[in-house]
Amino acid sequence: MGLANRLGLGEFRESDPALHRHFEAIVPSTPPIEELILCSRVTISMDLVYRTLQNLPFVKDVVLRNNLDGTMAAFISLSSTAKSIPSVDESEFLSLPGYSLPNPIYFIHGPLLKDDTGEYDFRRMENESLNSKTMTKHQLLVRKIVAEVLDIDPAPLTAHSDFFLMGGTSLLIGQLCYRLRRQTGINIDIADLFTESTIYGIASMIEEKEHKVTKRELTGVGNGANAKINESSTATLFTEQLYGQDAEYQKARQSRSQNHPLCLIVQAIPFIFFYPSKRALVCK
Q1: Which of 112, 173, 186, 260 sits between 20 and 30 A of 212, alpha carbons compared?
Q2: Which residues make beta-bridge pairs with 39?
Q3: Triad 65, 69, 74: Cα angle to 5°
Q4: pTM value surpassing 0.85
Q5: Where are the domains of the chain?
Q6: Confidence at residue 234, expressed as pLDDT on a 0 to 100 scale
Q7: Residue 37: helix, strand or coil by DSSP?
Q8: How many Cβ atoms from other residues are within 10 Å of residue 100's Cβ?
């Protein structure tokens, strides 16, 4: 909080675009603790992004489009040597700050499409891109869940779309974890979501855990149903704390109300036993 005050940062809301939460500043070598630090919101260099993408080995041509939140989407025409959507390795983007990474990235076989006026036809390229056509069923499911959590249209999202770069936060990642577990039956640890936050990465973790559960069932090592329950039990307490008020979740759990006799008895225990003992010790 002290650093936020020194930087002059105000409050942030969940609705604030991810790019609007990134700032840069030059800190003096030995500043007094009360001295204000000048900072400014980061900006994206379109030229730097374009040059970085154009130099990738699988790229034939590229065009960038500004998104409403200030970020950019990239439309990439693949070279003839690329037979499918390439897996974009992070090392290829080391020259770009994380907030500058295009999101989403559309891959197209053949030349970039233009309309009758000679302008790039972005909508047509979105519809005819390879992204949705080559996504697995797990990736499509994760894309749907991520879009629900972020309250955005899933159509532009690709396998390489990153949850955090699309506006995800450490608070929303708990909701993402809950929805993934509820809709897939597989528990993904929150720590893993911080490491693998792309749709491709999350879907790969789900596929890997499903494969392990299936393998245990086929080999007869332990009870498959119990193994699945044990695997997901670590997130149960966290899930109940976050979503105890969720209507669907409450209906499923059939929880007791706070006026239930058993709950009242448990709540009365401290007043009957602990508080009189404490009062007696204080009096002594």
Answers
A1: 173
A2: 25
A3: 25
A4: no
A5: 2-41, 45-129, 135-254
A6: 42
A7: coil
A8: 22
> Which DSSP helix (H) or strand (E) runs through 66?
strand 59-66
- Separation between Cα atoms, residue 68 and residue 47, nearest integer Å: 19
Please state, in angstroms and rounded to a whole number, the distance separating the CA atoms of residues 180 and 202. 9
How far, in whole angstroms, is CA 69 from its chain's centroid?
17
Tokens of 76: 């990439």
pLDDT mean by block of 10 residues, the chain; 284 residues: 74 72 77 75 86 85 85 85 62 70 81 89 80 77 91 77 82 89 89 88 90 74 49 43 47 54 68 62 56
For residues 173 and 197, what is the distance between their CA atoms, to the nearest angstrom?
9
CATH topology of domain 135-254: 1.10.1200
Identify the burial level of 65 via C-beta atoms within 10 angstroms of its C-beta, where 0-12 means exposed, 13-18 middle and 19 or more buried: middle
Tokens of 180: 């993934």
Cα(283)–Cα(271) distance, integer angstroms: 17
| CATH architecture entry for 45-129 | 2-Layer Sandwich (3.30)
Output the CA angle 191-195-198, nearest 5 degrees: 120
At 14, phi and psi to the nearest 5? Answer: -60, -30
Amino acid at the residue 222 = G
Give the ranges where the chain is alpha helix by DSSP (H). Answer: 2-7, 46-54, 122-128, 137-150, 172-184, 190-195, 199-219, 224-232, 236-243, 247-253, 261-269, 275-283
